[in-house]
Amino acid sequence: IYARKDGYISIGPNAWVKEEHLDVR
With bands split at pLDDT 50, 70 and 90, how would you rate the model's confidence at 12? Predict the structure, then answer.
């Protein structure tokens, strides 16, 4: 995980996936 913000996690330079299935804030 590169970054995390606004319910999204970044798995790459320009790859953001929604984190709705995870309960991490």
Answer: confident
